[in-house]
Amino acid sequence: MRCVPSRVFATHDIDVGEHQVIKTFRSWDRGEHQREWQALVMLASYAPDLAPTPLGCDLDSVPPRVRMSRVPGQPLAEQEVTTAHLDAVAAAMNQLHEAVPPDILAMVRPQPWLAAGALNRMKSLLAALERPVDADPVVRAAFDAAIDWLDHVAEPRHDALNPVFGQGDGNLANYLWDGRRVRLVDFEDSGRSDRAFELAAFAEHLSVWHDAKVETEALLGRFALTSAEAARLRFFRRGFGFFWLLKLLGARDDRLSVLLSQAYRLLLMLDTF
């Protein structure tokens, strides 16, 4: 078994063997271990070979562990993302979103952000922060514009959401390319979600638009959206844009350029320019 350094993962460590992976959780207060296991079991039934096969779990141990098969492929975060990759990402996401039957999906817990409310999630992050008075003027402008947006926007009604089973995490490292198709790993934030939310989580993840330089319109153009979904996508993209700005505040020196890029991106999404 090969232990992947824990610094790579904020919430878990993994031991990688030739045919299996053991995921040991470093935090599980939000039921991350239970969400992971539930997702693997459901997908083994409804979308076999899209995700790892569940092999066993110790959900009551401290720390909890989940054992799964090792799926082929390399993370897209380690490659130059091509149009073929994006086609495969879209196919994998569509398969995931459509896999779980509605009657089964109705019994699945909501994705954590949606369970708490996206606006509540952002306000809880804000409660621990102060206005970045010493930051770059563009960063301060983005922060203030987002606060103004947050004060005046309404969250999409739950009865307007398009329920899908969602991964809840847009990190490009969770998308494995085997030369032909993409498979998905890491379901600790998964749950009953909204299609627009899931697309926004992916499109606005730093690993996607910043690190991999994925062109957002080219990505989202691969999905046919209703007008209602497009409106929710706009809301959730702004929310994730603000989330990443807040996460980057106080960044170390080598991340300051990322913070500035995030601020510009958020201002554009808020129609400030």
The coarse overall form would be globular
CATH superfamily of the largest domain: Aminoglycoside phosphotransferase (APH), C-terminal lobe
Structural class: alpha+beta
Number of helices: 11
User: What does the main sheet amount to?
Assistant: 5 strands, antiparallel
What share of the residues lie within helices? 40-55%
Account of the 3D structure:
- This protein is of the alpha+beta class and 273 residues long.
- The protein has two domains: 2-69, Phosphorylase Kinase, domain 1 (2-Layer Sandwich), CATH 3.30.200; 74-269, Aminoglycoside phosphotransferase (APH), C-terminal lobe (Aminoglycoside 3'-phosphotransferase, Chain: A, domain 2), CATH 3.90.1200.10.
- The protein is 45% helix and 15% strand.
- The strands form three sheets. A five-stranded antiparallel sheet has the order 1-2-3-5-4, covered by helices on one side. Strands 6-8-9 form a three-stranded antiparallel sheet. The chain has a two-stranded antiparallel sheet with strand order 7-10.
- A hairpin with a 6-residue loop joins strand 4 and strand 5 (65-69).
- Mean pLDDT is 92; it is low at 1-9.
Explain briefly what this protein structure is.
Helices cover 45% and strands 15% of the residues. With 273 residues, the protein is of the alpha+beta class.
